[in-house]
Write a structure and sequence with these properties.
The protein is of the alpha+beta class and 448 residues long. Helices cover 69% and strands 10% of the residues. The protein has a five-stranded mixed β-sheet. The protein has a two-stranded antiparallel ribbon with strand order 1-3.
Length: 448
């Protein structure tokens, strides 16, 4: 059923696309016939062709708009197209027969050439429906042979006559048309087979991805509970709440706590990534004042900056800039970008956080003066489980997912992120969002 529907729609799309090309052919043949042969035959043939053309166009548009995927409907449209094909074919051959008859026994160059064009046109463009193609070629082929055969029957010339040459030529031309139809039909069937194989592979990959996604979600959730307990216990041990640790255990306990924190971060990132890829991450959009958001983000990341010996400087900013966004997700974006900037800054360095208005957009700029990013590293920066290699990279690593998640979160806000960098001088990350003007802000508040 699915293949028949695909064939029907491919057929009618091709027919609609070539509608004006056929009109030009009919108009040209009509003008030539009216001028050199018979005005009456030209008008009658043209009207007959146009009736069949517009019937075919009507059916084609019905097929294009068809969406119930019913086998019964598919067969109904197939039968309708067969009827319009018979009508269209007879509208063409009646022109050819009338012109040939008016010429009498002769070398019917114009009518046979027109019939050749129609047959070749069908062979090249009707291969989507083999039965429709067969009907056209049978009708055209029969007339192709009938016209020179009738002349031979009436005249009964010798073998050296041009009429016998015309008959032999029509046989050759008919073979050429049939072979062209065979080739085009084979190419189309092969393309359908490839499409079916791709669809099967797509379904297989989708099923495998769904299993993988469910596995990641289940494992991540199952790991989170015991990990929370481990982190709590290690925190109590390192704080001295459970008593003073032996000197030889202090370093080990701190390493364990550090790695448990990294594992917790990895689990959170995996869960976020799984939600984003499954399209299940929800965004609670609201009017957000960016100046306030940046101040809150700088304060939230201040302790990490202190740990790394890096200060976060809030630059002069416009307090009137607002966007329609999910506050928590934007905080997550800023946390990822800021932590990245801090991590690759030099000890005693600084990270600058600022806002910049540009037309109907607003940019959040995060600038560091650290090691910089090599050229052609865009895929590594925003890839999954990848980090930019650097001889100055600190031992405190990451999951390699933060910037990839950041980019996908911003995509959900119709926003972008990019960066400029110079090795040894630093990097500036730029987050660009749509600016919410005053009227939009009021509308959002009223709607809320």
């Amino acid at each position: 059923m699915q293949q028949l529907e695909q064939q029907l729609k491919d057929f009618v799309r091709g027919g609609i696309k070539l509608f004006w090309q056929r009109q030009a052919m009919f108009a040209g043949a009509t003008l030539l016939t009216a001028y050199y042969m018979s005005l009456q035959i030209a008008i009658i043939s043209y009207l007959f062709c146009e009736i069949s053309e517009f019937l075919d166009l009507y059916i084609s548009k019905k097929v294009i708009s068809w969406s119930d995927h019913s086998l019964k409907t598919a067969r109904h449209y197939h039968n309708m197209l067969m009827f319009s094909t018979v009508l269209s074919s007879f509208s063409i051959v009646q022109y050819v027969v009338l012109v040939s008859y008016s010429e009498g026994p002769a070398l019917h160059f114009a009518p046979l050439f027109f019939l050749f064009c129609a047959a070749l046109f069908a062979a090249m463009n009707n291969h989507q429906l083999p039965k429709v193609l067969a009907v056209r070629l049978v009708i055209y082929g029969a007339v192709f042979l009938l016209i020179p055969a009738y002349d031979l029957w009436v005249v009964r010339p010798g073998l050296k006559s041009d009429l016998w040459l015309q008959f032999a030529t029509t046989l050759f031309v008919l073979y050429f048309i049939l072979d062209s139809a065979r080739v085009m039909l084979g190419v189309y069937r092969k393309s359908l087979q490839q499409i079916d194989e791709l669809c099967t592979e797509r379904d297989r990959v989708s099923a495998a991805y769904e299993v993988q996604s469910q596995f990641v979600a289940v494992v991540s959730h199952e790991l989170r509970t015991p990990l929370t307990s481990i982190k709590g216990a290690l925190g109590l041990m390192n704080s001295g709440a459970l008593g003073t640790l032996p000197t030889e255990m202090v370093g080990v306990a701190k390493i364990a706590q550090k790695n448990s924190d990294r594992l917790a971060l990895l689990i959170d990132d995996l869960l976020d990534l799984q939600k984003l890829e499954a399209g299940k991450m929800t965004f609670n959009f609201d009017t957000i004042n960016l100046a306030e958001l940046l101040e809150e983000s700088a304060e939230a990341n201040k302790s990490y900056g202190g740990l790394m010996g890096v200060t976060i400087n809030l630059m002069a900013r416009d307090n009137s800039l607002t966007v329609n966004a999910d506050r928590d997700r934007l905080m997550q974006v800023l946390a990822n970008v800021l932590s990245n900037a801090i991590k690759f800054s030099k000890h005693g360095g600084r990270v600058e956080l600022s806002l910049e208005k540009s037309g109907g957009k607003v940019r959040i700029l995060v600038r560091d003066y650290g090691v910089g990013i090599p050229e052609n590293s865009y895929d590594k920066v925003f890839g999954r489980f990848t980090q930019v290699d650097s001889s100055d990279q600190r031992e405190i690593g990451g999951t390699g997912l933060g910037m990839s998640i950041t980019k996908q979160i911003l995509a959900g806000h119709n926003a972008t992120i990019d960066f400029t960098s110079t090795l040894g001088e630093g990097t500036t990350f730029v987050v660009e969002l749509d600016l919410l003007d005053a009227d939009d802000s009021q509308c959002t508040q009223i709607a809320a």
